[in-house]
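for the record, two folds in this file. i put them one after another cuz i was lazy. first one right below, seq on top, structure tokens after. the second one comes after a little note so u can tell where it starts
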Amino acid sequence: MKKIAIISPSVRKGRKSHRVALWFRRYLEENSLAMAEIIDLAEYAFPLFDERLKMQENPLPEALELAGKIRSADGVIIVTPEYNGGYPASLKNVIDLLTDEWRRKPVAISTVSDGPFGGTQVITSLQFTLWKTGAWTVPAMFPVPRVDEAFDGEGLPADPEAMGKRAARFTGELIRCIGAQSLMND
């Protein structure tokens, strides 16, 4: 079975994007699509890094743990809020920290906002940053507008059927990209 890491980068109190990360984990596992693990950056509380992990003399154990989780995942889903048209500094910090771990890794992007556009303004900048690391960004996107209305605090969707249809396309594309990537590595 595929292994997918779900990065939840918001470290804000009262964050809402984490609801979507919770739901993706549940969706992947309940539909037997993949084993899923949430990497909650709020639990790591990393300092700003001044060097890539592989160049650090004494890396934090948590940084090594994170690198191992990304390296061992077949693919990654990033569930990011949009902050003023960009993504959280915590996410940029982690992307820049790792190098080899991102190379050729299939990464799917879900964006979240309180407004009507679902965080779509952040997609281009995040794709570009991931592209520069060598990650393979999946063409399918999963914007979630009005997250308060779309998901409750436990990560349950207001409209499970509609959300399930969207998620099937999104996760299906990620799983296809994982399959293509594994063929390229053989």
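(here's the note) second protein begins now
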Amino acid sequence: MSTTSIESIDDVSPSVNVLLDVVGLGKTYGSGHGAVRALDDVTFSVEEGEFVCIVGPSGAGKTTLLRCLAGLMTPSQGQASIAGERISGPPRGLAMVFQDYGRSLMPWLKVVENVGFPLRNKGVSKAERRERSMAALESVGIANFAQKHPWQLSGGMQQRVAIARALAYQPQVLLMDEPFASVDAQTRSDLEDLTLRIQRQSGITTVFVTHDIDESVYLGDRVIVLTKPPTTVSQIFDVPLPRERDPISTKELPEFAHLRATVMRAIKTL
């Protein structure tokens, strides 16, 4: 296992495989004496096909960071880019799964229509929208619920719909903002395994924000620890676990327990 401080990150040239690059990103709310510095000089990169988890103390600005990466919020300084193109609005090569799946789905549309809805803006034909939507629903295990409405499904199944919608969009980068925080423990474990399986099969570069340290170590290839506001990167940990993981044997590994404790210690000592 290796750790890297933000000071050493600045001295490293970007890898040729870097897909998402964040350099000196900062965000300030308000102005003058009432200004609040939420993010300050956040710098990291994510390589193509990598699964990176972001953790930090409560109020560290994790969601603000993700919204800047999604082009939903304009940073006050620095920049983020995908494949070398600066993010100045919602990129066409990016999809996002939100924590509040209930509000992200349209209750008047059927499940298959919800999944295919963002493809309209891509100019995808109706036939192809349906084909891609059904394939995405099949990949998350709920193709037989395609003609249902979201309100007819459980919370866990609704979040599967939200994940399917992101997959049908076929993004280069997938952002996930605490997507399993509102479901029960068993459903959360099932969705974690589903996400890992899909990510390994599709190779989609994934940035996953979570408050759950166990989840970050279980899912990630690397774990980025953020500081308290004004937020920057404290440490980055490699995850030296086999890429094929399951919730029992993986979490019994000494390496898992050690890294979980190390990440927790890094957050507690901020």
